[in-house]
Each structure stands twice: as C-alpha cells, then as structure tokens.
Design brief:
By secondary structure, the chain is mostly helical. A hairpin with a 2-residue loop joins strand 7 and strand 8. It is built from 13 helices and eight strands.
Length: about 325
C-alpha cells in the first residue's frame, strides 16, 4: 500500500521544504533525535540532491512501478534500468538544470557506465535512506496511509469511481470524462485505455505528483488527508500538543476554543501580527482551523479536526 521509493523521493523533497506543514513535525523530531539514522541517510541525501533537485523534473527511473510490490522489488527495478533510458533521463535532467541556471554534477554520467558501479552505489544508498527516513517510522507512516486507503475504499464501494474522485476535492475535480488535478506542472495525460494507479503518500503534500514520461504506466501520487495524519500521530505519541506542534501553535489552538481574529490572538499570546499570521496559516494548511474575512478582520475558527485534536482523549492540551 505504501510505495517505498515514492516515499523516499517525496521525503527528500520535504526535508528541503521550509514551508512543510506542521503535521510533519513529530516525524521530523524523531528523525533529528537519532544520530545513527541521520548518518545512514546522508549518502543518499547527497545523491538525491543531484538526481532530484527542487524543480519541475526528476528522473522517472527512481520511482518504478515495481516498487508497489515493496522495497526489494523497487530496488531491483532501479538496478535493472537500461543504460539508454538512464542516458535519456539524465539528459533531460541536465537540460532542466541548464534552463534553471544550475550545474549538473559530472559524476552522474557514471550511472550509465556498467563498469563504474555508480548504479549499485545508488541503490545501496536508497535502501539505507529508506531504512532511516521511512522504515524506522513505519508506525506513523503505514497507519496513516492505511486509514486514508480505507476511507477511499468505502467511498468507492458505496458510490463508484465518480464518488471516489469527488472524495479528493479540492485536490482533484472530476468533470466527466476528465479528471482535473492540482499539479505543479501544466500537462495533459491521456490514458488511452490504460488504468490509472492512485498512490497514497504520507510525505506528499500540497499537490499531486506524476511521472514525466507519459508512455510509462500512468500513476498519480496524492497526499493523504491531514485528519489521518493527526489521528495516527496522537495514537502513537499521546503527549501534549506543545510537543507535537510547538508551544505557540498549541496555544493558538487552545485560544481558538472561541473564534478570534488575528489581532485578538496576537494580543492574547503577546506576539506580533506578522508572527500570528504565519502561525494561523500553518494551522489552516494542516486542516485544524478555518479563516474567514469579517470586514477588516480575519476571523479564525477551529475545524472539527482541530476540536478533535484539542479535546480528544488521547491528547492533553
């Protein structure tokens, strides 16, 4: 159910994202506390920074469809990538880097040389990275993803494929016969009778992700809902809210037992308007509050998920 190589790649992107949602904080805090895991992930982190830099393109061979069967199957598929395909995808990466004014490390060319051992080094590093960043946090990741999949299956059985697509709104919108998806790159994908594999992801956030090569088996990786992330976090770590998300954001949630404006929150918590705006934006992105303009003010209110996190039996505010 969890695709290990997609989670490797997306966790790599997440670690470089300064605007990552607050619900990733418990996972990140766990990782940072383990010096052994940090040391294990660094070689692959260096490789991935070169192979999959921030931007519109990363090589498709890093996320083969065989990874759906597990890490070993995925690693074997990466190892078996043909030299011609490697060369074509690395050339596309180089062209993308040129357009963005970014250098392509020369050692990447060694991946196409069967005698260099570079591809073997990459697959070894990917395995270590997965163990450190994904596998060691399986209790957080797998339970969250399985909860999301269970919801989608219930919707599918009750209402069919169209109901399933509607359950992804606003990330996706079904307009028969087209599925419109919020995506970072403008592109059209024609299935031409092929199925579409939907991949739930713990580390994906903001928008969906797909492959660059439309001739490959169609896949759409989507972020699971914040509700399923929080449910798992609070089940695994029933500590105070401040330990989960930071003292100020926890205090904002407590203050929002009664709806309040940004100005009122800033005055109550003795912080600046700019800082409070950042905190409310983070909580809104996490699905814990809603914000609505009321005249010159912005009024913030807890969502049902925010109330559950605040008042649930497993969480002490």
């Amino acid at each position: 159910m969890v695709d290990p190589l997609w989670e490797v790649l997306l966790s790599h992107f997440l670690l470089g994202d300064r605007n990552r949602p607050v619900y990733f904080q418990p996972w990140l805090a766990r990782l940072r506390r383990r010096s052994d895991l940090l040391a294990m992930m660094r070689p692959a982190g260096t490789l991935l920074s070169a192979l999959a830099p921030p931007g519109p393109y990363f090589p498709d061979f890093l996320t083969p469809p065989e990874s759906a069967a597990g890490l070993d199957a995925g690693i074997d598929a990466v190892s078996a990538t043909g030299r011609r395909r490697l060369g074509d995808e690395l050339n596309l990466l180089h062209q993308t880097n040129q357009r963005r004014g970014r250098a392509t490390p020369g050692w990447l060319a060694g991946l196409t040389d069967s005698q260099s051992g570079a591809l073997i080094s990459l697959t070894t590093a990917l395995r270590d990275y997965h163990r450190a960043v994904v596998g060691s946090h399986d209790d957080l990741i797998r339970a969250s993803v399985e909860a999301d999949v269970a919801l989608r299956v219930r919707v599918l059985l009750a209402g069919g494929v169209e109901a399933l697509f509607r359950s992804f709104e606003p990330l996706m919108r079904w307009r028969r016969p087209v599925l419109e998806v919020r995506y970072d790159v403008e592109q059209d994908l024609y299935l031409q009778g092929r199925g579409l594999r939907l991949v739930p992801s713990f580390f994906c956030h903001g928008s969906a992700v797909s492959l660059a090569d439309q001739d490959l088996p169609p896949v759409l990786v989507y972020p699971i809902t914040p509700e399923h992330r929080w449910d798992t976090i609070t089940a695994v770590d029933p500590g105070p809210l401040s330990e989960l998300m930071g003292a100020t954001r926890a205090a904002v949630l407590v203050a929002l037992r009664h709806s309040a404006s940004t100005t009122e929150l800033a005055a109550t918590l003795y912080t600046s308007l700019a800082s409070m705006s950042r905190h409310t934006k983070t909580l809104r992105q996490a699905g814990l509050i809603t914000s609505e303009r009321r005249g010159p003010a912005i009024l913030h209110t807890l969502t049902p998920l925010g109330w559950r996190l605040l008042d649930g039996a497993k969480v002490r505010a």
